[in-house]
Specification:
The structure is a homodimer. Chain A is mostly helical. Chain A is built from six helices and two strands, in the order ααααββαα. Chain A has helices at 2-15, 21-31, 38-45, 49-61, 83-104, 109-126, and strands spanning 65-69, 77-81. A two-stranded antiparallel ribbon of chain A has the order 1-2. In chain A, β1 and β2 (77-81) form a beta hairpin. In chain A, α1 (2-15) runs antiparallel to α5 (83-104), α2 crosses α5 and α3 (38-45) packs across α4 (49-61). Chain A is globular and about 55 Å long. Chains A and B meet through α1 and α6 of A and α1 and α6 of B. The structure holds a DNA duplex.
DNA sequence: TATTGTTATACTCTATAACTATA
DNA sequence: TATAGTTATAGAGTATAACAATA
C-alpha cells in the first residue's frame, strides 16, 4: 500500500513535467554517465533491449535524449541526455524528494532513519541493483 | 527497489497459478464478502468502474468469479468468488506469504518487526486503504 | 434526469520473437 | 554466424468518455 501510494503520487507529479516514471528512470540512469549503449542501459535497468528502444524513441521525440552513432561499429550507437534533458533531471529529482518528504513526513525522525536503514540493508543483502521503472 | 523486487517476484509466482496480480487483488477483495457490486469494488480497490468491468470479464471467463443479477434493480449485479475462485485464494495467499518470507527473511526478527511497525504506522497516519493492484 | 455498468478508445509498460544491418 | 538494435505483435493495466438500460 505504502509503495503504491508513494509511486502513484510521484507518477502524478512527474506527469506535470511531461514525462512518465519510466522515462524519468531512463533519464536518471543516463545522468551518471556520458553516453551509454542501449544494451548497457537495458542491463542496468533490468529491461529488454526492445523496451529500451521504445522508451528511447519517445525521449528522442521529446528532445530529452540524443544519440551518437558509433564510428567503429555501424550497428551501434550511444544514448545521452540532451541539454534540456540534463537540466530536467534535478527538477524531477526534487519532485522525488518532495514526494518522499511528503509521504514519509508523517514519521518521526527515528522511524524514518530506521526505515531507511532497514530497506538499505535489505537491498544490500539481496543484491538489488535495478533502477525501478514504475 | 525493494518494493519492485518483491512485487515482480510475486507476479512471477502468481502467474504459475494462472492469474495476474490485479486478478489476485480482485479475488482477495471479494474473499472478505459474500457478493459485491462492481461500483463498490471499484471504490474499494481505488479503480474506475471501467477497469473493474474488464478485470471481472477475465475472471468470469476463467471461472474464478461469478455474478448474480439484482432483482430489485435490473441495471445492477453483484460479483462473488466461484467455488474454484474461493479455493484458490488461500493458495495465492500462501504464495504471498512465501514471497514475503523469502524476501524479508534476510532481515533479523527485530528488523522485520521494526519495518512492519513503521509501515503500518505510515499507512495509518496517511489513511491508506486501497488494495494495491500491482 | 441520475445512476449502473459496458464499451470504445487510447496510452504506457513490457515481453517475446522475428528481422535488418553490420561484424 | 554472431551481435546491435528495431520492429511486430501481444497482453496487462488503467483512464476517460460515450453509451445503453433502467431507475
Amino acid at each position: 500500500m505504502v509503495s503504491n501510494a508513494v509511486s502513484q503520487e510521484f507518477a502524478r507529479k512527474v506527469t506535470t513535467e511531461g514525462v512518465t516514471v519510466a522515462e524519468w528512470s531512463f533519464m536518471r540512469a543516463l545522468y551518471d554517465e556520458e553516453a551509454v549503449a542501449p544494451s548497457v542501459l537495458a542491463e542496468k535497468m533490468g529491461m529488454t533491449k526492445g523496451a529500451i528502444s521504445k522508451l528511447a524513441d519517445r525521449l528522442l521525440a521529446k528532445g530529452l535524449v540524443a544519440r551518437i552513432e558509433s564510428e567503429q561499429d555501424k550497428r551501434a550507437h550511444s544514448l545521452l541526455l540532451s541539454a534540456e534533458g540534463r537540466a530536467k533531471v534535478p527538477v524531477l529529482a526534487s519532485l522525488a524528494d518532495e514526494n518522499d518528504a511528503e509521504y514519509f513526513g508523517v514519521l518521526t525522525m527515528d522511524e524514518r532513519e530506521a526505515l531507511d536503514r532497514t530497506l538499505k540493508a535489505l537491498a544490500a543483502r539481496r543484491g538489488l541493483r535495478n533502477i525501478p521503472a514504475d
